[in-house]
Amino acid sequence: MRKIAFSIFILFCPILSSAQNKLHMVGVSYGYNISNVNFDPPIAHSSVNTIKNFSILYNYYHDIWGSSPYFGLQTGISRFETGYKIQDEKFITELYRVPLISQFHIDFWKMRLLVNLGAYGAYRSKRIEPESSYFDPEDNRMEFGIIGGGGLAFIFRPFELHLEANYNYSLTYLNDPRKGGSERPQYSYPNHLILSASLFFHIKSK
């Protein structure tokens, strides 16, 4: 059995050693946020746009077993303003988000085509509008959701400029559903589209 295991290890050594294409990047991102909430039962409302959306991000690109150069991971921390509007009154909250994204990339010339798919965890800390209005203690503050999107990267070694559009959809409620009453709870699912520009710096590559 040990000889078989050793033979398998020797067989896969060349494959593992060939996975040398690695790239680490850190960067900052600015986003234009088009945000909304899905209400069930429906409530007449409209989306809001915010501009104070910033992120610090880390990207790691690497080959999988030396044969697939298209895989990457992205994480970091983001601070967003999201919300909705009923008639002329805006309801905007502050959201701190940590994404975990599979960022598939196809490199050509001095560019990359990016495809993002992943999830996120977040914490809603307070209301910004109406001003100085905090969450009710019964509101759900932790949030989890999914992310999908894509974009283009322009490579100027050791820098990269990424232009992306990513849709975030929450799987948890913005407010405690019981506020709608025990007989007819009101469910609310936040979502937002981020149009972002990010500047990354190559910190290590092979």
Defining key terms:
8-stranded antiparallel barrel; 68% strand; elongated; Porin; disordered N terminus; mainly beta; 1 helix; 206 residues
Under the CATH scheme, which class?
Mainly Beta
Shape: elongated
Would you tell me which CATH topology applies?
Porin
Largest sheet: 8 strands, antiparallel, barrel
SSE order: HEEEEEEEE
Q: Approximately how much beta-strand content do the residues carry?
A: over 45%
Helix content: under 10%
Number of strand segments: 8
Rg estimate, integer Å: 21 Å
**Architecture in CATH?**
Beta Barrel
Please report the distance between the alpha carbons of the first and last residues: 36 Å
List the quaternary state of the chains. Answer: single chain
Low-confidence stretches: 1-19
Total discrete domains:
1
Mean pLDDT value: 86
Strand order within the widest sheet? 1-2-3-4-5-6-7-8
* Number of contiguous helices: 1
Structural class: mainly beta
Describe this protein's structure.
The chain has one domain: Porin (Beta Barrel). Helices cover 8% and strands 68% of the residues. The chain has one helix at residues 2-17, and strands at residues 22-40, 48-64, 68-86, 89-108, 111-129, 142-156, 159-170, 187-205. It has an 8-stranded antiparallel barrel with strand order 1-2-3-4-5-6-7-8. A hairpin with a 2-residue loop joins strand 6 and strand 7. Mean pLDDT is 86; it is low at 1-19.
Write the layout of secondary structure elements.
Blueprint: H1 2-17, E1 22-40, E2 48-64, E3 68-86, E4 89-108, E5 111-129, E6 142-156, E7 159-170, E8 187-205
Antiparallel strand pairs: 1-2, 1-8, 2-3, 3-4, 4-5, 5-6, 6-7, 7-8
